[in-house]
Amino acid sequence: MKFQVLSKYIDLILHFSYIYIIKLRRCLKMKNIKPLADRVLIKIKEAESKTTSGLYIPENAKEKTNIGTVIAIGSNKEDITVKVGDTVLYEKYAGAAVRIEDKEHLILKAKEIIAIIEE
C-alpha cells in the first residue's frame, strides 16, 4: 500500500515536471536578445539545398555553414570590429547556438569572427 501511494506521488511529480518543461519551452521562444560585452548575435546562413548541378541535398546531409549575418552586437563596442548587417565568417565550433523564431542563431565572442565577407 505504501508503494502505491508513493508511486502516485511520483507520477504527480513527474506530471508537474512535464507541465513545467512545456511552459519553459514556450518561454524560450525568444525574440529580443541583446548580447553582452564583446559578444555578437549572428543569424546562421542556411546551407544550400541544391547543388550547382541541380541535385537536391536532403536535410540530414547538409553541412552546417560557418557564415552568417550580424543581428546585434554587445555593449563593449571598442572590441567589436563588425557592425549590424555585416556578413561574417566565424570559427566552425564557436559560440552558443540559440533558436529565435525557429531560425538558427549563434552568440559568440567578437574574436571568434574570422573575416567580414563583402559581396
UniProtKB/TrEMBL annotation:
One of its GO terms (molecular function) is metal ion binding. It holds the Pfam family Cpn10. It comes from the Bacteria. The keyword Cell inner membrane does not apply. One of its GO terms (cellular component) is cytoplasm. It is found in: Cytoplasm. Its main location: cytoplasm. InterPro entries: Chaperonin_GroES, Chaperonin_GroES_sf, Chaprnonin_Cpn10_CS, GroES-like_sf. SUPFAM superfamilies: GroES-like (SSF50129). PANTHER family: 10 KDA HEAT SHOCK PROTEIN, CO-CHAPERONIN GROES. Together with the chaperonin GroEL, plays an essential role in assisting protein folding. The GroEL-GroES system forms a nano-cage that allows encapsulation of the non-native substrate proteins and provides a physical environment optimized to promote and accelerate protein folding. GroES binds to the apical surface of the GroEL ring, thereby capping the opening of the GroEL channel. This is Co-chaperonin GroES.
